[in-house]
Amino acid sequence: MASLKNIKLKILSVKKTSTVTHAMEAVSAVKMRKSQERALSGRMYAATALSVLERISGTTDVRGHALMQERGGKSCFVIVTSDKGLAGSLNSGVVRLAEQEILRRDLEKQDVVVIAIGRRGGDYFASRGYDVRIKHENMSDGVSEEEMRIVTDKVLEWHAAGEIGNCVVVYTNFLSTFEQQPTARQIVPITAPMMEQMVANIRPARGKYSPLSAMDRVQAPKAYTIEPDAGSVLALLLPKLLNIAVFHALLESKASEHSARMVAMKNATDKARDMSKTLTRTFNKVRQAAITREVSEITSGIEAMR
After folding, report:
1. pLDDT digit string (tens) for 133-179?
2. Can you give the C-alpha Rg of the chain in angstroms?
3. Paired residues of 136 in beta bridges
4. Separation between Cα atoms, residue 126 and residue 129, nearest integer Å
5. Which residues of the chain have pLDDT under 70?
6. Are 116 and 151 in contact (CB under 8 A)?
7. Structural domain boundaries in the chain
């Protein structure tokens, strides 16, 4: 049977752990609320911007654009994870989905280029021999859309040079505080079905950020009149809209990360408290048994002296 001293040390250790996890839960809760609001409020902007791309993707001018064409070359994967752990299965879900997508496309390691946003994803793929060319760490919760142009510009540069033929962003889509879903979206080349699916999944089914009714939806025109000319406008518009897609994926991942970490820390705090209660009961039983044994020994000694 464990000694009283060892049990007491375990109780103190568990209580200290509970204090730490409770503090981390409180911090994550504050960050979660801010990130959720930012991600949800940005959904309408992202959906509207991407719907523009969806509507013009069927026009003749856009169909001939380089970003609408799949070229020969490697496949680029933008992996969005967190820098830190203690967030449940958040990062492992993204990594697992990325590996499944690589297998589904029948790609070898030498056929894949990785852009890692977050240390966890970058370290994982780098340690397994993948070509991790860019790794962005310590991305703040207040990161701006303009800062994400670092990623988008590289993707566009590699695609224009024929180095990559397509690009997929893998991230965690925020559904609710207790539910996050790993998601993979192809952003290059641009296709009408891809844009339609992305817009549909950005907007929630209900609430103030929900999509318009079928009667209110804007119908795609047969053609657009683009001034001064299609080449100049699309050269500015398409990279901007693609950047919004990557930026929105980061916002969703941030909201998912803080939600998952808050839930994980709450579960850890509850488990630590339960363990503390169990150890306290064990401590009391052992102490009572020791007292009973000592009383029995004293009584036996007295009887023997008589």
Report:
1. 999 988 888 888 888 888 899 998 999 888 999 999 999 988 888 88
2. 28
3. 117
4. 5
5. 1-2, 46-47, 49-50, 53-64, 192, 195-226, 229-231
6. no
7. 26-261
Decide: 65 and 234 in contact? Cβ < 8 Å. Answer: yes
- CA–CA gap between residue 276 and residue 163 (Å, rounded): 57
- Sign, CA torsion 129/130/134/137: negative
Spatial distance between the Cα atoms of 81 and 169, rounded to a whole number of angstroms: 11
User: H helices of 148-229, where?
Assistant: 149-160, 192-202
Please give the Cα distance from 82 to 249 (Å, whole number): 13
Alpha-carbon distance 189 to 160, whole Å?
11
Token pair for 206: 């209900």
- The secondary structure of 91-109 as a DSSP string is HHHHHHHHHHHHHHTT--G
Domain 26-261 indexed as CATH 3.40.1380.10: yes
